[in-house]
Structures are given as structure tokens and as C-alpha cells.
Amino acid sequence: MRQMARRSFVAGAAGVVAGVVSTVTLAGDAFAGPSRPTGAPEQSRHRHVVRRELRGMWVATVANLDWPSAPGLTAAAQKAELIAYLDEAVDRRLNTVVLQVRPTADALWPSPYEPWAQYLTGVQGKDPGWDPLGTAVREAHRRGLELHAWFNPYRVANHTDPSRLAATHPARLHPDWVLPYGGKLYYNPGLPEVRSFVQDAMLDAVRRYDIDAVHWDDYFYPYPVAGQVFDDDATYRKYGAGFPDKAAWRRDNTDKLVRETAERIKKIKKNVQFGISPFGVWRNASTDPLGSDTKAGVQTYDDLYADTRGWIRKGWIDYICPQIYWNIGFAAADYAKLLSWWSEVVRGTEVDLFVGEALYKAGDPAQPAAWQDPAELSRHIDLAARYDQVRGHVYFSGKDVVRDRIGAMDRVVGDHYRSRVRPPR
């Protein structure tokens, strides 16, 4: 396993674009030159010749999962941890960091719409004394990294007590916007004023910072919880006329959020991309012949009311990054089958396909035998190289990139990331 001696972390913090790209030196590292056909071997004379691809890692802030390693650290300590993650990305020859900046209807920048995130100071609304998003963008770009700002549209809190929110939190000022479900609080996606507000809150970051992309994760309507009801009946009665059922209305609400956000991003800054990272199964083939050969217990179309396939076919997003968090050969959801399915979905569109990779499973004793093999993830990259539509991979999550329990990330880097490359654009 690779040693991290030259850099300290606080405990717990832990495809193809056509054309020729000139060799450019950024932050002391040379980016590779001309693209090569998919499947062609790397050639080494004076430099590696590789295709452009996205190589990213998620850095999660909710519940201090990755960063900061604990709430209440000094501003200097928080910044040092953040910089260490960026340096780790460079060392691993990654080119993109996806930083969670709106984890629970709050902000990691001085937002006029929402309070400071509690994961910085331990107190929601308390100024941490610095600007994490602004610093992340600046320092990432200095290192030749893209910074994708990761937002969660509707999650308000990982509890159901509004009194625990900051006094000025919009969810307290507008209690009619909020619904409890599964032990958490959510904004109601069926309310037009909610959809407008969450867009305003997220797009503030697009206006203020030179971010490279707006990135959403897999939470739209919440994941189903047995025995509980997401009680939007009154909203459906008010706004659901003309829809065959509540499910169709809910999907339309999510469609509106995606389409409107996409349009507004491009009006603000045309070069900012819009990407979404959904749960890896749109629908099972047993539910819909257009679906994947899977037997997943969750289907985004039916359970999260998110028509991820439709967004691609309609061209509303710039990239899709499905979380294909299973091993090759997994019976209910085979990585290989899902990779092929998603490749076919994006074929003929202008939507880039990046693959979300479950690095966190590598070496976890609770996972199947395949995840105890350090080569499993490297085999994913080998398999993806057979598909021109696959233009990169993103690893979950930052602390797992750092600790790399069984050397799975080392193996990926050694096998596939021999030189730095630029993301596809």
C-alpha cells in the first residue's frame, strides 16, 4: 500500500473526445497529448499517448463523511484537510474533484439563501471564517483539476425536528414547504415555489464562482421506506390535474426541476456543465423492456420518480454518472450488464457517460468475495475501455481514495492512470 507520509490527514478524513490536445504543463505535471482509439495500448516514447477521460473522486461533507473530518476544526485545519484531498487527486493522476457544497439545504459558501452548513463549525448558520467553495475552486484550478460543485436539491435535514435548524433557515420560515419522511426532512418537490427556491439557492454558486459543473447525486424524491408515506396528497390535489396518477405527476415535478435548472445554468454561464449521478438502475427489464437485465430492488423511474434515461434522450444534461456500485457478475445487478446498458442509452446523444465506482466496497469484509480482490476495480476500467461511450470514472469517496484499504485504487492508478490527462470537453 502506498504511503501518505509526505501529507497529513486528521484522523477520519482520511469515451473519447475527437481532436488533438497539445501537451500542457499545469501544476508541474504534463497532460498527455493526442487522443488514441479506444482499446489501443498506451505508447511511450517521449510521453504517454492516452485518450481524454474524466478521472474523479467525490468528497462528501454530509455528516462529515469525508471532509471536514469533524465539525468545529479551525479554519486553518479545515483548509489544510481540503488541500490534502486536492493534492491526493493530483498524486493519483485524477483530474476532477466533486465536492459536496449543499449537503442539507445549507451552504459551504456565504449564501444569501441558506445558512452555513453545520458540518463546518458544528452549528448551522455559524460563519466558519473562510470560504470553502471559493478556496476549493481556486486551489483545484491551480492544480489543473476541475471542481464540480455537488448539490442535493431537496434534503433538508437528517432528522425531523425543525427547531434544530438555524432560526433563519428557509424550512423554518416556510414550514409548509417541508415534509418528514423516513426520519428526515425534505422539501416538497411538488410545490412550484420550492422548485424555484432550490434552483435559486444552487445557482447562486454558479454566478459567484468559476465552478466547472453543477453536480447532483441520486436523491430526488426520497428512497422508499417500508411502512411510511411521503404525504404530498394535498399538493397532488392542488397541482396534479391532468396526470393519470400521482407517480406521473411526481416524475413531471422532477423533470421540471432538471429541465429548468439546465436552462438556467446555460443562461448564466454556457461553459458550466450539468451532470447527474443517479442510482445505477433506471428500470428492470421485467418492468420495462427498455430497462436493464437486472433485478434491482429500487428503480429510479418508479421509486425516486426520476426518469434518468429520459433526461439523456432529451439532451437536458451534459453528463450522466450512474452509480454502478456492484461487482462484475453480481446476480441482481451485474456491473458488466449495466455498463453495456448505459452505453447504449447515451449512444447517439451528446451526453457524456462517466461511471460511478464503489471504491468504498473494496476490502469491506461485509461485501461479496469479488470486493476482497484488489483487482476488481481495475477490471471495471478494462471493461469500460471496450465502450467508446464511457468517458471516465468517479470514485466514492475521498477518504477511501486516501486510505485505499486493500490497494484497489493503487491498482487502478498503476494499471490505467500512468500520466495525467484532461477531462473530455
TrEMBL record:
UniProt keyword annotation of Signal present: yes
Gene3D superfamilies on file: Glycosidases
MF terms in GO: hydrolase activity
Domain Glycosyl hydrolase-like: 53-367
Lineage: superkingdom: Bacteria
Keyword Signal: yes
Keywords: Hydrolase, Signal
InterPro entries reported in the protein's UniProt record: Divisome_Glycosyl_Hydrolase (IPR052177), GH (IPR017853), GHL10 (IPR003790), TAT_signal (IPR006311)
Signal peptide annotation: 1-27
Pfam families: GHL10 (PF02638)
UniProt name for this protein: Glycoside hydrolase family 10 protein
